[in-house]
Structure formats: structure tokens, C-alpha cells
Design brief:
37% helix, alpha+beta, globular, 2 helices
Amino acid sequence: MWTVVYLAKNKKIAEKISRLMTNEGVLVKLQPVNKNISEEDSYVEILVLESEVEEAHNILYELGY
């Protein structure tokens, strides 16, 4: 099951966090929150597998998010 671990302000930030988590071996999925706004300007949910939530939170903490 996929779980939201962070809500990024825009796609650029979401992709940056996604790359950093992927580099640490965490499987990441991005999902825009609002379909009526361009993907670049919409908030984006960062989701990880339920089994990797703790690791994802640790990575976010280390990155200062």
C-alpha cells in the first residue's frame, strides 16, 4: 500500500525529494493534488510503500524537510 509521507509545494520540489529518496533505495511515486491546475504549480504528494515509511521520514528529517 502506498502512503503519503510529504506534500511538496510544487513539482520541482517533489522531483528533487524523489531523486534523493530514490538514491537511498526508496521506491517513490508522485501524485498531483489538484488536477485542475498545471502540474508545475500544483501541490504534489510524495508517496512511498508502507514498509518504507520510516526510512522515508528519516531521509526527510536528514534533508531538513
